[in-house]
Amino acid sequence: MKLLSFLVSILGLLAVCKATTYEYNIKTFNVLLDHFTFADNATFPIRYLMNDSYVTDKRSPIMFYTGNEGDIELFAQNTGFVWKAGIQLKAMIVFAEHRYYGKSLPFGNESYKDPQHLGYLTSEQALADFADLLEHLNPDRLRPVICFGGSYGGMLSAWMRMKYPHLVVGALASSAPVRQFTDVVPCDIFNRILTSVFRVAIENSPCVDNIKKLWPVLKNFSSTEEGRKYLSNEFKFCKPYNKTEDYDTFYAYLMDVFGNLAMANYPYEANFLAPLPAFPVRQFCGQLDKNFDKNEELLTAFNNALQVYSNYTQKTKCLDISSAYDESMGSLGWDFQACTEMVMPMCTTGSTDMFVPKKWDFAEYSTDCFKKFKVYPRERAAICQYGAFKFDMLSNVIFSNGLLDPWSGGGVLRTQSDAVTVVILPEGAHHLDLREDNKADPASIKATRTYYLKTFREWVDTYNN
Ligand SMILES: *[C@@H]1O[C@H](CO)[C@@H](O)[C@H](O)[C@H]1NC(C)=O
Ligand SMILES: *[C@@H]1O[C@H](CO)[C@@H](O)[C@H](O)[C@H]1NC(C)=O
Ligand SMILES: *[C@@H]1O[C@H](CO)[C@@H](O)[C@H](O)[C@H]1NC(C)=O
Ligand SMILES: *[C@@H]1O[C@H](CO)[C@@H](O)[C@H](O)[C@H]1NC(C)=O
Ligand SMILES: *[C@@H]1O[C@H](CO)[C@@H](O)[C@H](O)[C@H]1NC(C)=O
Ligand SMILES: *[C@@H]1O[C@H](CO)[C@@H](O)[C@H](O)[C@H]1NC(C)=O
User: Fold this and answer.
1) Are residues 211 and 155 both part of a single domain?
2) Where is the protein situated, by its record's location annotation (predicted)?
3) Is this prediction's pTM over 0.85?
Protein backbone atom coordinates (compact mmCIF):
# COMPACT_ATOMS: atom_id res chain seq x y z
CA MET A 1 0.00 0.00 0.00
CA LYS A 2 1.35 3.36 -0.91
CA LEU A 3 0.12 6.87 -0.59
CA LEU A 4 -0.41 8.33 -4.03
CA SER A 5 -2.10 11.57 -3.39
CA PHE A 6 -3.87 13.31 -0.63
CA LEU A 7 -6.95 15.41 -0.65
CA VAL A 8 -8.55 16.77 2.41
CA SER A 9 -11.92 18.32 2.13
CA ILE A 10 -13.40 19.92 5.16
CA LEU A 11 -17.07 19.30 5.46
CA GLY A 12 -17.35 21.56 8.44
CA LEU A 13 -19.21 20.93 11.62
CA LEU A 14 -21.15 17.80 10.81
CA ALA A 15 -21.34 16.50 14.33
CA VAL A 16 -21.68 18.21 17.64
CA CYS A 17 -21.41 15.86 20.56
CA LYS A 18 -22.52 16.80 24.02
CA ALA A 19 -21.29 15.37 27.28
CA THR A 20 -21.77 16.25 30.89
CA THR A 21 -18.38 17.66 31.79
CA TYR A 22 -16.77 18.74 28.52
CA GLU A 23 -18.60 20.46 25.76
CA TYR A 24 -17.45 18.31 22.86
CA ASN A 25 -17.40 20.18 19.65
CA ILE A 26 -16.12 17.74 17.13
CA LYS A 27 -15.19 18.78 13.67
CA THR A 28 -15.78 16.15 11.09
CA PHE A 29 -13.42 15.95 8.19
CA ASN A 30 -13.59 13.91 5.08
CA VAL A 31 -10.21 12.60 4.08
CA LEU A 32 -9.48 10.95 0.78
CA LEU A 33 -6.81 8.28 0.76
CA ASP A 34 -5.40 6.38 -2.16
CA HIS A 35 -4.58 2.72 -1.81
CA PHE A 36 -2.90 0.24 -4.10
CA THR A 37 -5.33 -2.36 -2.84
CA PHE A 38 -7.96 -1.13 -5.23
CA ALA A 39 -7.44 -2.44 -8.71
CA ASP A 40 -8.77 0.72 -10.29
CA ASN A 41 -6.76 2.99 -7.95
CA ALA A 42 -9.96 4.46 -6.60
CA THR A 43 -9.92 6.58 -3.47
CA PHE A 44 -12.34 6.49 -0.59
CA PRO A 45 -12.97 8.69 2.42
CA ILE A 46 -11.79 7.83 5.92
CA ARG A 47 -13.55 10.00 8.44
CA TYR A 48 -11.84 11.42 11.44
CA LEU A 49 -12.83 13.80 14.19
CA MET A 50 -10.30 16.39 15.20
CA ASN A 51 -10.01 19.20 17.71
CA ASP A 52 -6.86 21.32 17.62
CA SER A 53 -8.01 24.19 19.82
CA TYR A 54 -5.69 23.17 22.67
CA VAL A 55 -2.54 23.00 20.56
CA THR A 56 0.05 25.59 21.59
CA ASP A 57 2.98 24.92 19.27
CA LYS A 58 4.38 22.68 16.58
CA ARG A 59 5.61 20.15 19.13
CA SER A 60 2.27 19.74 20.90
CA PRO A 61 1.39 16.05 20.96
CA ILE A 62 -1.41 14.22 19.20
CA MET A 63 -3.88 12.08 21.15
CA PHE A 64 -4.98 9.59 18.54
CA TYR A 65 -7.92 7.23 19.06
CA THR A 66 -7.59 4.19 16.82
CA GLY A 67 -11.21 3.62 15.86
CA ASN A 68 -12.73 0.19 16.11
CA GLU A 69 -15.79 -1.64 14.85
CA GLY A 70 -18.40 1.09 14.87
CA ASP A 71 -19.32 4.67 14.14
CA ILE A 72 -16.44 6.84 15.39
CA GLU A 73 -18.83 9.29 17.02
CA LEU A 74 -19.99 6.54 19.38
CA PHE A 75 -16.41 6.04 20.57
CA ALA A 76 -15.76 9.77 20.82
CA GLN A 77 -18.81 10.08 23.06
CA ASN A 78 -17.71 7.21 25.27
CA THR A 79 -14.00 8.01 25.56
CA GLY A 80 -13.92 11.24 27.56
CA PHE A 81 -10.52 10.46 29.05
CA VAL A 82 -8.87 11.24 25.70
CA TRP A 83 -10.32 14.75 25.98
CA LYS A 84 -9.01 15.15 29.47
CA ALA A 85 -5.55 14.00 28.39
CA GLY A 86 -5.71 16.24 25.33
CA ILE A 87 -6.55 19.31 27.37
CA GLN A 88 -3.90 18.62 30.00
CA LEU A 89 -1.16 17.89 27.48
CA LYS A 90 -2.25 20.72 25.16
CA ALA A 91 -2.66 18.21 22.39
CA MET A 92 -4.40 17.80 19.10
CA ILE A 93 -7.24 15.32 19.67
CA VAL A 94 -8.07 12.95 16.84
CA PHE A 95 -10.60 10.12 16.58
CA ALA A 96 -10.02 8.17 13.39
CA GLU A 97 -12.72 5.94 11.97
CA HIS A 98 -11.92 2.35 10.98
CA ARG A 99 -12.54 1.56 7.33
CA TYR A 100 -15.89 -0.14 6.59
CA TYR A 101 -17.54 1.32 9.71
CA GLY A 102 -19.60 4.44 10.31
CA LYS A 103 -19.24 6.67 7.27
CA SER A 104 -15.87 5.32 6.12
CA LEU A 105 -17.25 2.96 3.51
CA PRO A 106 -14.84 2.28 0.62
CA PHE A 107 -17.62 1.32 -1.81
CA GLY A 108 -20.45 3.31 -0.30
CA ASN A 109 -23.58 1.28 0.21
CA GLU A 110 -22.08 -1.62 -1.76
CA SER A 111 -19.18 -2.11 0.64
CA TYR A 112 -20.77 -5.16 2.24
CA LYS A 113 -22.12 -6.62 -1.01
CA ASP A 114 -19.74 -9.56 -1.52
CA PRO A 115 -16.21 -10.76 -0.68
CA GLN A 116 -14.83 -8.79 -3.64
CA HIS A 117 -15.98 -5.57 -1.97
CA LEU A 118 -15.58 -6.63 1.65
CA GLY A 119 -12.17 -8.21 1.22
CA TYR A 120 -10.33 -4.97 1.99
CA LEU A 121 -11.68 -5.00 5.53
CA THR A 122 -8.68 -6.12 7.56
CA SER A 123 -6.89 -4.89 10.67
CA GLU A 124 -3.65 -4.52 8.69
CA GLN A 125 -5.37 -2.15 6.27
CA ALA A 126 -6.94 -0.22 9.14
CA LEU A 127 -3.53 0.25 10.75
CA ALA A 128 -2.11 1.37 7.40
CA ASP A 129 -4.95 3.89 7.08
CA PHE A 130 -4.09 5.30 10.50
CA ALA A 131 -0.42 5.47 9.52
CA ASP A 132 -1.33 7.41 6.36
CA LEU A 133 -3.49 9.76 8.38
CA LEU A 134 -0.65 10.36 10.85
CA GLU A 135 1.74 11.06 7.98
CA HIS A 136 -0.72 13.66 6.81
CA LEU A 137 -1.37 15.25 10.21
CA ASN A 138 2.24 15.13 11.34
CA PRO A 139 4.40 15.14 8.20
CA ASP A 140 7.61 16.30 9.86
CA ARG A 141 6.95 14.12 12.93
CA LEU A 142 7.54 16.97 15.35
CA ARG A 143 4.51 15.94 17.34
CA PRO A 144 4.73 12.89 19.61
CA VAL A 145 1.70 10.69 18.94
CA ILE A 146 -0.02 8.68 21.66
CA CYS A 147 -2.55 6.08 20.57
CA PHE A 148 -5.64 5.17 22.56
CA GLY A 149 -8.19 2.49 22.11
CA GLY A 150 -10.62 0.26 23.93
CA SER A 151 -11.41 -3.35 23.13
CA TYR A 152 -10.53 -4.08 19.47
CA GLY A 153 -9.54 -0.39 19.33
CA GLY A 154 -7.09 -1.12 22.15
CA MET A 155 -5.66 -4.02 20.18
CA LEU A 156 -5.17 -1.63 17.25
CA SER A 157 -3.43 0.91 19.53
CA ALA A 158 -0.94 -1.67 20.80
CA TRP A 159 -0.42 -2.96 17.27
CA MET A 160 0.14 0.60 15.96
CA ARG A 161 3.05 0.97 18.36
CA MET A 162 4.26 -2.48 17.32
CA LYS A 163 4.04 -1.97 13.57
CA TYR A 164 4.67 1.78 13.25
CA PRO A 165 7.02 2.68 16.14
CA HIS A 166 8.42 5.57 14.08
CA LEU A 167 4.95 7.18 14.00
CA VAL A 168 3.70 6.46 17.51
CA VAL A 169 5.56 7.16 20.75
CA GLY A 170 3.28 5.13 23.02
CA ALA A 171 -0.11 3.50 23.39
CA LEU A 172 -2.81 2.94 25.97
CA ALA A 173 -4.50 -0.34 25.11
CA SER A 174 -7.53 -0.61 27.34
CA SER A 175 -9.41 -3.91 27.69
CA ALA A 176 -7.63 -5.16 24.59
CA PRO A 177 -7.99 -8.93 24.17
CA VAL A 178 -4.74 -9.31 22.20
CA ARG A 179 -4.36 -12.86 23.53
CA GLN A 180 -7.91 -14.12 22.81
CA PHE A 181 -6.69 -16.46 20.08
CA THR A 182 -6.37 -20.16 19.38
CA ASP A 183 -4.30 -22.08 21.94
CA VAL A 184 -3.26 -18.90 23.75
CA VAL A 185 -6.07 -18.79 26.31
CA PRO A 186 -8.70 -21.47 27.08
CA CYS A 187 -11.88 -21.08 25.02
CA ASP A 188 -14.14 -21.03 28.09
CA ILE A 189 -12.39 -18.10 29.77
CA PHE A 190 -14.74 -15.38 28.52
CA ASN A 191 -17.89 -17.11 29.71
CA ARG A 192 -16.25 -18.19 32.96
CA ILE A 193 -15.45 -14.57 33.88
CA LEU A 194 -18.85 -13.42 32.62
CA THR A 195 -20.58 -15.91 34.91
CA SER A 196 -18.51 -14.87 37.91
CA VAL A 197 -19.59 -11.25 37.34
CA PHE A 198 -23.21 -12.38 37.64
CA ARG A 199 -22.36 -14.59 40.60
CA VAL A 200 -20.85 -11.77 42.67
CA ALA A 201 -23.39 -9.10 41.67
CA ILE A 202 -25.54 -9.88 44.73
CA GLU A 203 -24.15 -11.90 47.61
CA ASN A 204 -25.53 -15.44 48.01
CA SER A 205 -28.08 -14.87 45.26
CA PRO A 206 -29.67 -17.70 43.26
CA CYS A 207 -29.39 -15.46 40.16
CA VAL A 208 -26.89 -17.66 38.31
CA ASP A 209 -28.78 -20.84 39.23
CA ASN A 210 -31.98 -19.31 37.90
CA ILE A 211 -30.27 -18.46 34.62
CA LYS A 212 -29.03 -22.05 34.38
CA LYS A 213 -32.58 -23.31 35.00
CA LEU A 214 -33.94 -21.03 32.34
CA TRP A 215 -32.37 -22.74 29.31
CA PRO A 216 -34.20 -26.11 29.48
CA VAL A 217 -37.42 -24.23 30.19
CA LEU A 218 -37.00 -21.95 27.18
CA LYS A 219 -36.11 -24.90 25.00
CA ASN A 220 -39.09 -26.87 26.24
CA PHE A 221 -41.49 -23.99 25.66
CA SER A 222 -40.00 -23.41 22.22
CA SER A 223 -40.67 -26.98 21.18
CA THR A 224 -44.48 -26.77 21.21
CA GLU A 225 -46.87 -24.40 19.54
CA GLU A 226 -48.57 -23.67 22.84
CA GLY A 227 -45.21 -22.93 24.48
CA ARG A 228 -44.16 -20.62 21.66
CA LYS A 229 -47.42 -18.71 21.97
CA TYR A 230 -46.74 -18.34 25.67
CA LEU A 231 -43.23 -17.02 25.05
CA SER A 232 -44.42 -14.65 22.32
CA ASN A 233 -46.99 -13.23 24.68
CA GLU A 234 -44.49 -12.88 27.51
CA PHE A 235 -41.52 -11.44 25.60
CA LYS A 236 -43.35 -9.50 22.84
CA PHE A 237 -41.01 -10.56 20.04
CA CYS A 238 -40.95 -8.28 17.01
CA LYS A 239 -40.85 -11.17 14.54
CA PRO A 240 -43.01 -14.29 14.75
CA TYR A 241 -41.59 -16.86 17.17
CA ASN A 242 -43.24 -19.85 15.60
CA LYS A 243 -40.51 -22.47 14.98
CA THR A 244 -38.61 -24.77 17.33
CA GLU A 245 -35.35 -23.33 15.93
CA ASP A 246 -36.32 -19.80 17.00
CA TYR A 247 -34.93 -20.93 20.34
CA ASP A 248 -31.42 -20.87 18.78
CA THR A 249 -31.88 -17.24 17.74
CA PHE A 250 -33.17 -16.30 21.17
CA TYR A 251 -30.32 -18.13 22.88
CA ALA A 252 -27.69 -16.42 20.70
CA TYR A 253 -29.31 -13.05 21.40
CA LEU A 254 -29.31 -13.70 25.15
CA MET A 255 -25.65 -14.75 25.08
CA ASP A 256 -24.84 -11.35 23.56
CA VAL A 257 -27.05 -9.59 26.10
CA PHE A 258 -25.21 -11.27 28.99
CA GLY A 259 -21.84 -10.32 27.48
CA ASN A 260 -22.93 -6.72 26.90
CA LEU A 261 -24.37 -6.36 30.41
CA ALA A 262 -21.05 -7.46 31.90
CA MET A 263 -18.99 -5.26 29.56
CA ALA A 264 -21.07 -2.16 30.26
CA ASN A 265 -21.38 -2.86 33.99
CA TYR A 266 -20.39 0.72 34.82
CA PRO A 267 -21.03 2.33 38.23
CA TYR A 268 -23.27 4.97 36.66
CA GLU A 269 -25.97 5.24 34.03
CA ALA A 270 -24.51 5.15 30.52
CA ASN A 271 -25.38 4.54 26.90
CA PHE A 272 -22.59 2.55 25.32
CA LEU A 273 -23.90 -0.78 24.00
CA ALA A 274 -27.44 0.11 25.06
CA PRO A 275 -29.00 2.65 27.40
CA LEU A 276 -28.35 1.08 30.82
CA PRO A 277 -28.69 1.97 34.51
CA ALA A 278 -25.77 2.04 36.95
CA PHE A 279 -24.50 -1.47 37.78
CA PRO A 280 -26.82 -3.14 35.25
CA VAL A 281 -25.74 -6.67 36.22
CA ARG A 282 -26.88 -6.07 39.79
CA GLN A 283 -30.15 -4.63 38.46
CA PHE A 284 -30.62 -7.68 36.26
CA CYS A 285 -29.91 -10.16 39.04
CA GLY A 286 -32.16 -8.22 41.39
CA GLN A 287 -35.10 -9.61 39.40
CA LEU A 288 -33.85 -13.19 39.77
CA ASP A 289 -32.94 -13.05 43.42
CA LYS A 290 -35.29 -15.75 44.70
CA ASN A 291 -36.37 -19.28 43.93
CA PHE A 292 -39.36 -19.82 41.66
CA ASP A 293 -41.79 -22.71 41.98
CA LYS A 294 -43.28 -22.51 38.53
CA ASN A 295 -41.61 -22.23 35.12
CA GLU A 296 -43.99 -19.44 34.21
CA GLU A 297 -42.83 -17.46 37.23
CA LEU A 298 -39.23 -17.93 36.23
CA LEU A 299 -40.02 -16.74 32.70
CA THR A 300 -41.80 -13.63 33.93
CA ALA A 301 -38.98 -12.79 36.34
CA PHE A 302 -36.48 -13.35 33.57
CA ASN A 303 -38.39 -11.02 31.28
CA ASN A 304 -38.35 -8.37 34.01
CA ALA A 305 -34.59 -8.84 34.26
CA LEU A 306 -34.19 -8.61 30.49
CA GLN A 307 -36.00 -5.27 30.47
CA VAL A 308 -32.92 -3.80 32.19
CA TYR A 309 -31.06 -4.33 28.92
CA SER A 310 -33.74 -4.19 26.26
CA ASN A 311 -36.12 -1.61 27.66
CA TYR A 312 -34.36 0.70 30.10
CA THR A 313 -35.87 3.61 28.18
CA GLN A 314 -39.35 2.06 28.64
CA LYS A 315 -39.92 2.82 24.99
CA THR A 316 -39.14 -0.56 23.42
CA LYS A 317 -42.31 -1.65 21.66
CA CYS A 318 -41.22 -5.20 20.88
CA LEU A 319 -38.18 -7.40 21.49
CA ASP A 320 -35.90 -7.68 18.48
CA ILE A 321 -33.86 -10.83 19.03
CA SER A 322 -32.09 -10.62 15.67
CA SER A 323 -29.33 -8.48 17.21
CA ALA A 324 -28.34 -7.33 20.67
CA TYR A 325 -26.35 -4.47 19.20
CA ASP A 326 -27.20 -0.89 18.48
CA GLU A 327 -26.87 0.13 14.81
CA SER A 328 -23.84 2.30 15.49
CA MET A 329 -21.85 -0.82 16.33
CA GLY A 330 -20.85 -2.52 13.09
CA SER A 331 -21.60 -6.06 14.16
CA LEU A 332 -21.78 -7.35 10.58
CA GLY A 333 -18.32 -5.96 9.81
CA TRP A 334 -16.96 -7.47 12.99
CA ASP A 335 -18.50 -10.83 12.10
CA PHE A 336 -16.65 -10.67 8.79
CA GLN A 337 -13.38 -9.86 10.54
CA ALA A 338 -14.02 -12.76 12.92
CA CYS A 339 -14.57 -14.94 9.87
CA THR A 340 -11.25 -13.98 8.28
CA GLU A 341 -8.42 -13.08 10.64
CA MET A 342 -9.89 -12.35 14.10
CA VAL A 343 -10.75 -15.90 15.07
CA MET A 344 -11.43 -15.84 18.81
CA PRO A 345 -12.35 -19.32 20.02
CA MET A 346 -15.29 -19.35 22.43
CA CYS A 347 -16.90 -22.25 24.22
CA THR A 348 -19.15 -23.00 27.17
CA THR A 349 -18.92 -25.89 29.63
CA GLY A 350 -22.14 -25.60 31.63
CA SER A 351 -20.11 -26.14 34.80
CA THR A 352 -17.64 -23.24 34.86
CA ASP A 353 -20.36 -21.02 33.37
CA MET A 354 -24.13 -20.60 33.39
CA PHE A 355 -24.68 -21.58 29.76
CA VAL A 356 -25.50 -24.66 27.74
CA PRO A 357 -22.31 -26.66 27.07
CA LYS A 358 -20.90 -26.11 23.60
CA LYS A 359 -17.46 -27.10 22.40
CA TRP A 360 -15.35 -24.89 20.18
CA ASP A 361 -15.42 -26.47 16.74
CA PHE A 362 -13.31 -24.65 14.18
CA ALA A 363 -14.56 -26.78 11.28
CA GLU A 364 -18.17 -25.92 12.07
CA TYR A 365 -17.22 -22.26 12.57
CA SER A 366 -15.53 -22.22 9.15
CA THR A 367 -18.57 -23.74 7.49
CA ASP A 368 -20.80 -21.10 9.06
CA CYS A 369 -18.44 -18.36 7.88
CA PHE A 370 -18.56 -19.65 4.36
CA LYS A 371 -22.36 -19.76 4.45
CA LYS A 372 -22.54 -16.22 5.73
CA PHE A 373 -19.75 -14.44 3.83
CA LYS A 374 -18.31 -16.88 1.25
CA VAL A 375 -14.97 -16.81 3.04
CA TYR A 376 -13.08 -19.25 5.21
CA PRO A 377 -11.23 -17.99 8.29
CA ARG A 378 -7.49 -18.35 8.79
CA GLU A 379 -7.35 -19.71 12.31
CA ARG A 380 -3.92 -18.39 13.29
CA ALA A 381 -3.82 -15.25 11.12
CA ALA A 382 -3.75 -12.76 14.00
CA ILE A 383 -1.17 -14.79 15.92
CA CYS A 384 1.11 -14.83 12.90
CA GLN A 385 0.57 -11.14 12.18
CA TYR A 386 0.91 -9.70 15.69
CA GLY A 387 1.99 -12.43 18.09
CA ALA A 388 -0.31 -13.26 20.97
CA PHE A 389 1.57 -15.05 23.70
CA LYS A 390 3.82 -12.30 25.04
CA PHE A 391 4.16 -8.61 24.41
CA ASP A 392 7.40 -8.02 26.29
CA MET A 393 9.15 -6.99 23.09
CA LEU A 394 7.11 -3.78 22.98
CA SER A 395 7.89 -0.52 24.73
CA ASN A 396 5.74 2.37 25.91
CA VAL A 397 2.55 0.36 25.89
CA ILE A 398 0.11 0.30 28.79
CA PHE A 399 -2.26 -2.66 28.85
CA SER A 400 -5.16 -2.09 31.24
CA ASN A 401 -7.82 -4.61 32.18
CA GLY A 402 -10.83 -4.46 34.46
CA LEU A 403 -11.34 -7.72 36.29
CA LEU A 404 -15.11 -7.34 35.92
CA ASP A 405 -14.69 -7.46 32.16
CA PRO A 406 -15.14 -10.86 30.46
CA TRP A 407 -12.56 -9.79 27.87
CA SER A 408 -9.88 -9.47 30.55
CA GLY A 409 -9.23 -13.20 30.16
CA GLY A 410 -7.71 -12.46 26.75
CA GLY A 411 -5.85 -9.36 27.91
CA VAL A 412 -2.23 -8.87 28.91
CA LEU A 413 -2.22 -9.43 32.67
CA ARG A 414 1.50 -9.79 33.29
CA THR A 415 4.77 -8.68 31.79
CA GLN A 416 8.47 -9.12 32.46
CA SER A 417 9.42 -5.95 30.65
CA ASP A 418 9.91 -2.59 32.34
CA ALA A 419 8.86 -0.87 29.14
CA VAL A 420 5.42 -2.46 29.13
CA THR A 421 2.95 -1.59 31.87
CA VAL A 422 0.12 -3.79 33.03
CA VAL A 423 -2.71 -2.12 34.92
CA ILE A 424 -5.28 -4.29 36.69
CA LEU A 425 -8.51 -2.61 37.75
CA PRO A 426 -10.36 -4.90 40.17
CA GLU A 427 -13.57 -2.85 39.95
CA GLY A 428 -13.40 -2.07 36.24
CA ALA A 429 -15.75 -3.19 33.47
CA HIS A 430 -14.89 -2.92 29.73
CA HIS A 431 -12.53 0.08 29.25
CA LEU A 432 -14.06 2.06 32.11
CA ASP A 433 -10.71 3.87 32.43
CA LEU A 434 -11.16 5.51 29.01
CA ARG A 435 -14.45 7.12 29.95
CA GLU A 436 -14.75 10.65 31.26
CA ASP A 437 -14.49 11.32 35.00
CA ASN A 438 -17.59 10.52 36.99
CA LYS A 439 -18.14 10.97 40.71
CA ALA A 440 -19.19 7.32 40.96
CA ASP A 441 -15.79 6.15 39.66
CA PRO A 442 -13.96 3.80 42.05
CA ALA A 443 -10.77 5.18 43.61
CA SER A 444 -8.64 2.79 41.53
CA ILE A 445 -9.88 4.41 38.32
CA LYS A 446 -9.11 7.93 39.52
CA ALA A 447 -5.58 6.96 40.59
CA THR A 448 -5.04 5.15 37.29
CA ARG A 449 -6.02 8.14 35.19
CA THR A 450 -3.54 10.29 37.15
CA TYR A 451 -0.85 7.69 36.51
CA TYR A 452 -1.66 7.65 32.78
CA LEU A 453 -1.28 11.44 32.50
CA LYS A 454 2.09 11.34 34.27
CA THR A 455 3.28 8.56 31.95
CA PHE A 456 2.10 10.38 28.82
CA ARG A 457 4.04 13.48 29.95
CA GLU A 458 7.18 11.39 30.31
CA TRP A 459 6.77 9.94 26.81
CA VAL A 460 6.20 13.41 25.36
CA ASP A 461 9.14 14.97 27.21
CA THR A 462 11.48 12.17 26.17
CA TYR A 463 10.40 12.55 22.56
CA ASN A 464 10.78 16.31 22.54
CA ASN A 465 14.22 16.27 24.16
C1 LIG B 1 -12.56 22.01 20.77
O2 LIG B 1 -13.34 21.72 21.91
C3 LIG B 1 -13.59 22.86 22.71
C4 LIG B 1 -14.29 22.38 23.98
O5 LIG B 1 -15.37 21.56 23.67
C6 LIG B 1 -14.41 23.86 21.93
O7 LIG B 1 -14.63 25.00 22.71
C8 LIG B 1 -13.67 24.24 20.66
O9 LIG B 1 -14.45 25.07 19.87
C10 LIG B 1 -13.31 22.99 19.88
N11 LIG B 1 -12.50 23.35 18.77
C12 LIG B 1 -12.72 22.94 17.53
C13 LIG B 1 -11.73 23.33 16.53
O14 LIG B 1 -13.70 22.26 17.25
C1 LIG C 1 -5.71 5.82 -11.96
O2 LIG C 1 -6.72 5.45 -12.90
C3 LIG C 1 -6.95 6.39 -13.94
C4 LIG C 1 -8.06 5.88 -14.80
O5 LIG C 1 -8.99 5.18 -14.07
C6 LIG C 1 -5.68 6.63 -14.75
O7 LIG C 1 -5.91 7.65 -15.70
C8 LIG C 1 -4.55 7.04 -13.82
O9 LIG C 1 -3.37 7.15 -14.54
C10 LIG C 1 -4.39 6.03 -12.70
N11 LIG C 1 -3.39 6.52 -11.76
C12 LIG C 1 -2.40 5.73 -11.31
C13 LIG C 1 -1.42 6.41 -10.42
O14 LIG C 1 -2.27 4.59 -11.62
C1 LIG D 1 -26.79 2.94 -3.20
O2 LIG D 1 -26.45 4.26 -3.55
C3 LIG D 1 -26.85 4.61 -4.85
C4 LIG D 1 -26.23 5.95 -5.19
O5 LIG D 1 -26.45 6.89 -4.17
C6 LIG D 1 -28.35 4.59 -4.92
O7 LIG D 1 -28.78 4.93 -6.22
C8 LIG D 1 -28.84 3.21 -4.57
O9 LIG D 1 -30.23 3.19 -4.51
C10 LIG D 1 -28.30 2.75 -3.24
N11 LIG D 1 -28.63 1.37 -3.05
C12 LIG D 1 -29.08 0.91 -1.90
C13 LIG D 1 -29.33 -0.57 -1.86
O14 LIG D 1 -29.27 1.61 -0.93
C1 LIG E 1 -41.84 -29.19 29.49
O2 LIG E 1 -43.17 -28.83 29.18
C3 LIG E 1 -44.12 -29.74 29.64
C4 LIG E 1 -45.50 -29.31 29.15
O5 LIG E 1 -45.57 -28.02 28.69
C6 LIG E 1 -44.07 -29.81 31.17
O7 LIG E 1 -44.99 -30.75 31.64
C8 LIG E 1 -42.66 -30.18 31.59
O9 LIG E 1 -42.56 -30.14 32.99
C10 LIG E 1 -41.66 -29.24 31.00
N11 LIG E 1 -40.30 -29.65 31.31
C12 LIG E 1 -39.37 -28.79 31.75
C13 LIG E 1 -38.00 -29.34 31.96
O14 LIG E 1 -39.59 -27.61 31.91
C1 LIG F 1 -44.12 -18.06 11.02
O2 LIG F 1 -44.76 -16.82 10.77
C3 LIG F 1 -44.41 -16.22 9.55
C4 LIG F 1 -45.04 -14.85 9.46
O5 LIG F 1 -46.35 -14.88 9.93
C6 LIG F 1 -44.81 -17.13 8.40
O7 LIG F 1 -44.42 -16.55 7.17
C8 LIG F 1 -44.13 -18.48 8.57
O9 LIG F 1 -44.57 -19.38 7.57
C10 LIG F 1 -44.43 -19.08 9.94
N11 LIG F 1 -43.66 -20.28 10.12
C12 LIG F 1 -44.17 -21.40 10.61
C13 LIG F 1 -43.24 -22.56 10.75
O14 LIG F 1 -45.32 -21.47 10.96
C1 LIG G 1 -41.16 -1.66 27.61
O2 LIG G 1 -41.66 -0.98 28.74
C3 LIG G 1 -42.96 -0.40 28.54
C4 LIG G 1 -43.32 0.39 29.79
O5 LIG G 1 -43.19 -0.39 30.93
C6 LIG G 1 -43.95 -1.51 28.25
O7 LIG G 1 -45.22 -0.94 27.99
C8 LIG G 1 -43.48 -2.30 27.03
O9 LIG G 1 -44.34 -3.39 26.80
C10 LIG G 1 -42.09 -2.82 27.26
N11 LIG G 1 -41.57 -3.47 26.04
C12 LIG G 1 -41.28 -4.77 25.96
C13 LIG G 1 -40.77 -5.27 24.67
O14 LIG G 1 -41.37 -5.52 26.90
Assistant:
1) no
2) Lysosome
3) yes
DSSP symbols for 370-406: HHHHS----TTHHHHHH--S--TT--SEEEEEETT-G
Looking at the structure, do residues 26 and 157 belong to the same domain, yes or no? yes
Q: Is the pLDDT of residue 10 over 70?
A: no
**What is the span of the domain harbouring residue 223?**
191-330
Active site residue 196: no
Q: H or E stretch including 147?
A: strand 145-150
Mutate to test the pocket of ligand 1, among 18, 23, 24, 53 (most ligand atoms within 8 A of CB): 53
Ligand nearest to the CA of 294: 4
Residues 213 and 122 in one domain: no
Q: How far is CA 390 from CA 95, 126, 168, 415, 416, in A?
A: 28, 23, 20, 8, 9
Question: What is the best residue among 295, 296, 298 to mutate for testing ligand 4's pocket, by most ligand atoms within 8 Å of CB?
Answer: 295
Say which amino acid occupies 198. F
Is the pLDDT at 225 greater than 60? The verdict is yes
Summarize pLDDT for 129-181 with one digit per residue, the tens: 999 889 889 999 999 999 999 999 999 999 999 999 999 999 999 999 999 99
What's the structural domain count of the chain?
2
Distance 278 CA to ligand 4 centre (A): 36
Amino acid at 366: S
Q: What is the pLDDT of residues 80-125, one digit of tens each?
A: 999 999 999 999 999 999 999 998 988 889 999 999 889 989 999 9
Return the number of other C-beta atoms located less than 10 Å from residue 441's C-beta: 20
